[in-house]
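Appendix B. Raw example, untouched.
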Amino acid sequence: MSDDALEAELRRAVELFDPVPSELLQVAVEAYTLRALDAELAELVFDSLSGPARVRGDRAPRILTFQGAELTVDLEVTVTADGGRVVGQLMPPGPAEVEVLGHRPATLATDELGRFVHDVPAGPFSLRCHLAGATVVTEWITV
């Protein structure tokens, strides 16, 4: 059996016995659409999970900082019964638009200090932030 034939047979087996969940497929499609040239992928420069090992069952919020050339996104993600609560701030501060991408997309307006709060469902999400001509997109974060 050739490699191509074996690969085709294995693909059919996976599709039959372990199909890709529709929610995951949707998130993958949305992630692919983020390759737009007008948005910069912000670099993750701090993640509280990458420090010393946390105690099992610790419910402390996860703190993340994403840095773009002109825009920084600070996040606090707290796990809740239904998913998570995201508290964020954009720097430099100012009114901005934040798009939440994932299972339940939403568009938020920040206050004059660049702050926002939003509840997200369990699963992956990403933020696309627009402030004063700068647009950055965060990596996918899983709650």
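End of appendix B.
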